[in-house]
Specification:
Layout lengths: L4 H16 L4 H15 L7 H10 L8 H4 L7 H11 L15 H11 L1 H8 L5 H15 L3 H16 L4 H17 L16 H8 L17
């Protein structure tokens, strides 16, 4: 992928924004999407992503939270609804890509399923959990963008949260090992798992849940 000079400036500003405040992560992900939409063509997409995008097709929309709240405790759908409610989050709408390609649909799928990855992996929505999940992404996707976020998050920790540095480094290492050992989540049909226990999903994916920490490390959401 060849990044234009203007987009390099934007990414540099985004890097600084994360270092200053990790809550800027959503803005950085949007910039990454825009760059990929403009700069990537079929020849530049990593083979792993190409294969996943073809296999995924057009994913079905997730059920509404109102329906998922009625599912039994411990199911993927109920735990997802609990996660969203506890953190003041609402599901992102699956925007119709301006360029209706496999890659555009795949990116939309990854964005809308991000919080489901939190549920499946056990990573919390704080700085430690987000960086642990980015390390998981890095191991599973084998693309460099998660490393960009990891580098900025680690630098933020060194400069502003040094008391948490070794805890976060430990989480990054755990996320990498966890992602490398588990089966791929890239093409998972989340809608088919909503009524089933999270433990069954993890067993299906050979996925070990992230270690639980006693308290949030730099909360990023409500």
């Amino acid at each position: 992928m060849t990044i234009s000079p203007l987009d390099r400036v934007r990414l540099a500003r985004s890097f600084v924004a994360i270092v200053r405040d990790p809550k800027n992560l959503d803005d950085v992900l949007e910039i990454g999407d825009r760059i990929a939409e403009r700069e990537l063509d079929d020849a530049q997409i990593p083979p792993l992503i190409q294969q996943a995008a073809r296999q995924l097709g057009a994913p079905a929309p997730l059920p509404p939270l109102t329906a998922l709240r009625e599912l039994p405790e411990g199911t993927v759908g109920r735990e997802y609804a609990n996660f969203m409610d506890a953190n003041g989050l609402v599901p992102e709408a699956l925007d119709r890509p301006t360029d209706d390609t496999e890659l555009a649909r795949f990116r939309a799928h990854m964005r809308t399923s991000h919080d489901l990855w939190h549920v499946a992996t056990g990573w919390t929505p704080d700085l430690l959990g987000e960086l642990g999940l980015q390390a998981f992404y890095l191991a599973q996707l084998r693309v460099p963008f998660p490393a960009f976020i990891l580098a900025a998050g680690l630098l933020h920790t060194v400069l502003k949260r040094r008391e948490h540095f070794y805890d976060i480094v430990d989480a990054v290492a755990e996320g990498w090992r966890q992602g490398a050992a588990a089966d791929s989540l890239l093409t998972l049909d989340w809608t088919a798992w909503m009524h089933r226990p999270v433990q069954d999903l993890r067993a299906h994916l050979a996925l070990t849940a992230a270690e639980r920490r006693p308290a949030p490390v730099v909360p990023l959401v409500a």
